[in-house]
Design brief:
Helix content: over 70%
Number of strands: 0
Shape: flat
């Protein structure tokens, strides 16, 4: 029996560790503050120091993330519908053989 972890097992272990870490975090805002400051600094640098433009770049960034999320959810729904249709077809075929 191999001691190698599968990709699914590695993902689950990472997820467990992340949940445990967040459970042990008393101040979530303080923990994520450095990342938020770095992202804001990135947009400000990209905007050449113009705060209004940086805010628009920030909004565009999060809108792109929302679009990708919506597209991913749509693809997941389509894949589920295709799998359900295939299951129904297999059920019909096995029912015909009986």
């Amino acid at each position: 029996m191999s001691n190698k972890l599968t990709s699914v097992e590695r993902k689950l272990i990472g997820s467990i560790a992340a949940h445990q870490s967040w459970a042990n975090t008393s101040d979530r805002a303080a923990r994520t503050a450095p990342a938020r400051r770095a992202l804001d600094a990135r947009f400000l640098a990209e905007a050449g120091g113009n705060e209004e433009r940086a805010e628009q770049l920030r909004k565009a960034h999060f809108q792109r993330l929302a679009l990708k999320s919506a597209q991913s959810r749509r693809r997941a729904r389509e894949a589920t519908a295709a799998a359900d249709a295939a299951d129904a077809e297999m059920s019909d075929l096995s029912g015909d053989a009986a």
